[in-house]
Amino acid sequence: MKLLIVDDEKSIRLSLKINMKKLGIDVFTAESGEEGLDIVRKKMPNIAIVDIKLPGISGIDVLKEIKQIKPSCIVIMITYLSDVKLAVKAMKMGAYDYFTKPFSLSEISRSIEETLEYAKTKIEIDKGSRDNQVKFIGQSPEIVKIKENIKEIASMKYNTCILLEGESGSGKEVIAKSIQSIKGDTIPFISINCAAIPKTLQESELFGYEKGAFSDAKNAKEGLIERANNGVLFLDEIGDMDISLQAKMLRVLQEKKFRRIGGLEEMDFKATILSATNKDLKEEIEAGNFRKDLYFRLNIIPIYIPPLRKRREDIIPLVQHFIENYNNVLNKNIESISKEVVDIFKSYLWPGNIRELKNVIERIMIFKKDNKITLEDVPKEILEDDSIEENHHYNLELVEENAIKKALDKNNWNITRTSEELGVSRITLRRKIEKYNLKNIKSDNFCN
């Protein structure tokens, strides 16, 4: 297991590193977001502890980049009390948890121990769920139409260019793998995330190189384009491809030929090109970040995947799919979810789209003991989200009551810590406790 600590305060980095090493894991530290992301690319840590306020790029941006480079990395944010709202925003973007400064080293060590168990389970989940990744779930008219289109495209013995556009986590990679699956599992499927590879290395990754092409080229290397020949090449986050490399990629698409770096031999290239982006490429063209001619070449068949909030009828089928998957992987027996949870899931905006929904179900099921998902299992950042509106069927007061109860139990009914976590005053919290007649079953007295 590998853990990364990103914090500009040397004392925090050092104390966390000493304590984390006691858990028997490899620990890496960085004092800036840029340095931290460089370590992520090289070491691919399982867990990252990231301060929200960093010099240079912010902790929120670091979280976003980590989730692009290694989506399975578990990210824990640390922040001062005044920045708790940012921490909640981070949770919605995929952070696993957050701690407020000053924090207890023993408390964070216990949390990391639990997170390590979660990370180990997650590795097994990722291994066990690979067979389910090509299932494209959805019954909304938009998704039904996309299914029909990709089936027709993939069934043709013809290589073309397909541009997948949609928000992060909306299912672009699943569509790409669905196309490859229909074409035949025996053909190569080669994927590159342009956002996860430094722009200086993108060309050598794609085109490969001959021995002696540059100082570090001790041996010849086959590039991803070469490996994808007669198969599918998936260019994920194409909007982050280096502008100078775009011209070379355009030549490959037009002439169906390429050369390794430092090579003289031209090689043939025949493959279906799938490109995906969550950026508006037309805006990128206007800004001078993307070539117009490459855009038209990639956009022969455009497919737009709507965000999950625009196709709410797909939410519960996806939930059922993930439950079935994790029942098999985790040897669980979850049979149902309560109506309140169904209503909340349908009302929540899911800014992280399908990826966020999948992560929420995964987290719930890892710790779930009985066979029904209820309101108390739903993460607090969803229960407290502003997108859950009053005109839906569930009782908002019930949501608030459960959120307060969970926070009180988590903090052992310490009023000060609970009010800080919930972002309300002590007086407001006491009024809410009286309003809902909440009781501490462990003690008759509040601990302040």
UniProtKB/TrEMBL annotation:
Assigned keywords, A-Z: ATP-binding, Nucleotide-binding, Phosphoprotein, Transcription, Transcription regulation
Residue(s) carrying 4-aspartylphosphate: 51
Database matches in Pfam families: AAA_lid_14 (PF25601), HTH_8 (PF02954), Response_reg (PF00072), Sigma54_activat (PF00158)
GO molecular-function terms, A-Z: ATP binding; sequence-specific DNA binding
Top-rank taxon, per record: Bacteria
Residues covered by the Sigma-54 factor interaction domain: 136-366
Occurrences of domain Response regulatory (ranges): 2-116
SUPFAM superfamilies: CheY-like (SSF52172), Homeodomain-like (SSF46689), P-loop containing nucleoside triphosphate hydrolases (SSF52540)
Gene Ontology biological process terms from the UniProt entry: phosphorelay signal transduction system; regulation of DNA-templated transcription
Function: May play the central regulatory role in sporulation. It may be an element of the effector pathway responsible for the activation of sporulation genes in response to nutritional stress. Spo0A may act in concert with spo0H (a sigma factor) to control the expression of some genes that are critical to the sporulation process.
The protein, known as: Stage 0 sporulation protein A homolog
Organism annotation: Senegalia massiliensis
